[in-house]
User: Fold these one by one.
Assistant:
Number 1:
Amino acid sequence: MTTQADLDAMIANTPEQFVRGLPVGRPIHCTSGTTGTPKGVWSGLLSEADATALSA
């Protein structure tokens, strides 16, 4: 992939089954809380409307 035309051609030829919408995953935040032990905090998935708003 070296040009915008190459990218456009690849996207145009991508089978529908592989075309996805916007990502709806949220970041995992790392915290040590009160114990000092690192842990991840997952805040769930974004709604379609929130994902759209974040990509604008």
Number 2:
Amino acid sequence: MGVYLSTPKTDKTSDNGENEKLRYGVSSMQGWRTSMEDVHAALLDLDNSTSFFGVYDGHGGYGYGYQSRLKRASLRVDFRMEELLAAGQQEQ
């Protein structure tokens, strides 16, 4: 599970974004870990009715949290986009 600091790192990193339909905010704090292991994704405009938000808990280290979980989530998003595109083509 990693090495811990003697005191938590409480500095926070925040971000936000919006489009014409949604507004979001995210914030993260490293805490007791020796490095930040968690990441997030916010994709507001996958198409005109689909957005994607993900929080990836980095148990096992930053590389594990980011690479494997983001890859799996991206595959799900790709699959959903294929479904949406197919449904749109069927409606035409």
